[in-house]
Amino acid sequence: MSMPFPHAVVIGASAGGVQALRDVLGCFPARFPAPVLVVQHIPRDRPSGLPALFDGSCALPVAEAEDKEPLCPGVVLFAPPDYHLLVEDRTTLSLSRDEPVLYSRPAIDPLFESAAEVFGEGLLAILLTGASSDGSAGVAAVRREGGTVWIQDPAEAVAPVMPASAIAHAGADAIVTLRDLCRRLGSFTP
Predict the structure, then answer these.
(1) Quick one: which of 187, 115, 160 has its CA closest to 13?
(2) In Å, how far are 31, 56, 100, 129 from 121, measured between CA atoms?
(3) What is the mean pLDDT of the chain?
(4) Would you call 24 exposed, middle or buried from its count of C-beta atoms within 10 A (0-12, 13-18, 19+)?
(5) 59 in Cβ contact with 27 (< 8 Å)
(6) Distance CA 91, CA 107 (A)
(7) What residues are annotated to the active site?
(8) pLDDT tens digits, one per residue of 35-81
(9) Is 8-186 CATH 3.40.50.11290?
């Protein structure tokens, strides 16, 4: 279970993800010294409201990512509607209007793949509940680059398809319940 402190954390969720994210984001310690980047599948045609929803239930500041925004430790950034969230380099994010992935924009795979390329073994990727196979290619990229992947136990997920697909496609370093995930995140102390 023990791993070095991650340089960045990426989280992907879809159907049932808002409640799972509420549980998971609430577990991050207040002085978590790494950026946390989140893709929750959301409709493309209206404001997401995710930062407002999670503000107050998370000890870390939460915001919607902006193009060319600096990566800041201890900040949770959500992908905005109709944009893929990408890690450009160790200091900068970017937003992309590239084609939807498995009908989703934002999609999980582009975030996980770009973060894996930049952070390699310093990346922690967390895949939660969802009803598509988005995330499977991203999980494979993270594992290929030496990063760590924790996937929500499909038996616990509201929508088990996404975590089950990723496990079948690429495996995981740990298959976890939300309670175990929180315990693991709480063990990271600066």
Answers:
(1) 160
(2) 22, 31, 27, 24
(3) 94
(4) buried
(5) no
(6) 21
(7) 14, 41, 134
(8) 999 999 998 888 888 999 998 889 999 999 999 999 999 999 999 99
(9) no
Q: Residue 1 above 70 pLDDT?
A: no
Tens of pLDDT along 125-170? Answer: 999 999 999 999 999 999 999 999 999 999 999 999 999 999 999 9
Which residue, chain included where needed, has tokens 């993800």? 17
Question: Which string of b and e fits 75-92 if b means at least 16 CB within 10 Å?
Answer: bbbbbbbbbbbbbeeeee
DSSP state at residue 86: E
The letter for the amino acid at 142 is V
Give the ranges where 1-135 is alpha helix by DSSP (H).
17-25, 50-54, 108-119
The pair of three-digit structure tokens given for residue 93, joined into one six-digit string: 């994010």
Q: What is the reported pTM?
A: 0.96
* Boundaries of every domain in the chain: 8-186
